[in-house]
Amino acid sequence: METLYLEKSQKYNRLINVVAILIPLVVAVLLGIRQKVDLGAWTKVLPHINGAINSVTTLLLLAGFYFIKQRNIAAHRRSMTGAFAMGSLFLVFYVLYHLSNESTPFGGTGFIRPVYYFLLISHIVLSIGVVWFVLRAVYFAYSGQLEAHRKVVKWAYPIWLYVSVTGVIVYLLISPYYS
């Protein structure tokens, strides 16, 4: 696999900071729009696709961890780049779905209800925070700053894995209530 090395630059750090702030703000604004945009009936399948994307992301994250422990840098890079691409695709589909569809209320009762909301809230809060860590991890890896990459990954990886796994669980819990 060909290596792409980005230059070490403060402009990339500033860009990462701006993007890590803009993504949650733009998503919040889009979710707050009361008037939904008619993008067609095809958007109804996006939550199911996103459930699959989160599952694939989880597998790629676990594979990336396995490969780095085996010192297989090329396979690690492919796995983690794939996880990053899946996360980016998830974000696009998530925005498209919520831009064009009302949120689905959770219909579960009893013990599962607080479990669902705990998982959902922790998933959302950590998904906002992990963006900055993941962007930095990717930048440090592709710019050859491996020591900085290792330091940020100590935070990025477990948070990203939690967000990915809880995304699958939250999807499985709410999927019976999609119309």
Automatic annotation (TrEMBL):
Signal peptide stretch: none
Transmembrane segments: 12-33, 45-68, 80-97, 117-139, 159-178
UniProt keyword Transmembrane helix present: yes
Keywords noted in UniProt: Membrane, Transmembrane, Transmembrane helix
Protein source organism: Rhabdobacter roseus
Protein's name in the database: Putative membrane protein
Superkingdom as given in the UniProt entry: Bacteria
